[in-house]
């Protein structure tokens, strides 16, 4: 598919002209029968993601015992998961289930920014939670002095500022490209690499930013998480009593599962693609599942694997039940 060109921007001093399309065409799957069923599946994933993350945020908001620095970070993870899925899945459903595969140039870049921004926040929040566990186990007596609510709010604020500035530059560099040929994006959303690969001028800066973005999203947080758990392991070896050691390990299990669910699929995809290039359909399925399944599973894991959350749910349910019983008694007494 060839596009009609919507705008040309020239820089007279440098005598440079940038050619931009009116729209991109998001291609999606190649010749897969019944592909719409996959998008219906993604719709169900999105519903579970919205319900699960909304539930965990409500529990943290309502339960006083969860009004701690750690659960501010957990709340932020649920919020990032919810926003990340909302930036991606509804657009995918609209694009392919309702066959709106043309997307304007500006809308494409906006979608790209929000998808990568919230993915980055998810990754950074997992790093913050590993920092929480590091301080809790290695410096237990100073934990409440170091990991405070203002400190977590400050870290989250810095994360947002850094991520927004970086991905504004990241996406903004697409404007330095000229698109002279096809406007077909071989992906399921406005992905960075498939977009800059369409350029007919030098895209070396975009390639560099893509590598830096991958490092920020995956490798840097993963390396820092690994270092933090190495320090935690050393601290656990110094604990004399086995019972205390097991108790400390249990406080890390939910976070380790979240890290594994987020990082392992992304790393597997990247390593596998280096050895054997995926066909486009396999790449789309792998990448879409990698981006959509973790936000759905995170609240389920935190609910089932974290004792404090389960206890808070039971207390809220018990309180709700008692309030309902009291209301019924008052209504009965009024009738009598």
TrEMBL record:
The keyword Endoplasmic reticulum does not apply. InterPro entries: GPCR1_Superfamily_Member (IPR052921), GPCR_Rhodpsn (IPR000276), GPCR_Rhodpsn_7TM (IPR017452), Olfact_rcpt (IPR000725). It is found in: Cell membrane. Residues 52-302 form the G-protein coupled receptors family 1 profile domain. The chain crosses the membrane at residues 37-62, 74-93, 113-131, 152-174, 212-236. It comes from the Eukaryota. This is Odorant receptor, family 42, subfamily A, member 7. It comes from Cyprinus carpio carpio.
């Amino acid at each position: 598919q060839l596009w009609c060109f919507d705008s040309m921007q020239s820089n007279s001093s440098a005598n440079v002209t940038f050619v931009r399309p009116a729209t991109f065409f998001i291609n999606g799957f190649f010749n897969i029968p019944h592909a719409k069923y996959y998008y219906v599946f993604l719709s169900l994933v999105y519903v579970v993601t919205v319900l699960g993350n909304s539930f965990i945020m409500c529990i943290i908001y309502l339960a006083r015992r969860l009004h701690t620095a750690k659960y501010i970070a957990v709340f932020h993870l649920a919020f990032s998961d919810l926003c990340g899925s909302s930036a991606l899945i509804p657009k995918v459903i609209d694009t392919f289930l309702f066959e709106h595969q043309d997307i304007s140039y500006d809308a494409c870049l906006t979608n790209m920014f929000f998808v990568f921004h919230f993915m980055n926040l998810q990754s950074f929040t997992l790093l913050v939670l590993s920092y929480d566990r590091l301080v809790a186990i290695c410096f237990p007596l100073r934990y409440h002095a170091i990991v405070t609510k203002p400190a977590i709010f400050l870290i989250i604020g810095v994360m947002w500022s850094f991520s927004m500035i970086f991905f504004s530059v990241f996406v903004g560099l697409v404007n330095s490209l000229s698109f002279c040929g096809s406007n077909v994006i071989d992906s399921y959303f406005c992905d960075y690499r498939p977009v800059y690969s369409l350029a007919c001028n030098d895209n070396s800066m975009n390639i560099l930013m893509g590598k830096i973005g991958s490092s920020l999203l995956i490798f840097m947080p993963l390396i820092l998480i690994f270092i933090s758990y190495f320090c935690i392991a050393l601290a656990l070896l110094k604990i004399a009593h086995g019972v205390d050691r097991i108790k400390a390990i249990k406080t890390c299990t939910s976070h380790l599962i979240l890290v594994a669910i987020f990082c392992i699929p992304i790393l597997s995809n990247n390593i596998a693609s280096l050895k054997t290039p995926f066909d486009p359909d396999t790449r789309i399925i792998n990448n879409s599942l990698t981006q959509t399944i973790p936000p759905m599973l995170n609240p389920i894991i935190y609910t089932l694997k974290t004792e404090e959350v389960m206890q808070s749910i039971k207390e809220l349910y018990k309180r709700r039940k008692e309030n309902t019983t009291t209301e019924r008694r008052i209504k009965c007494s009024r009738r009598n």
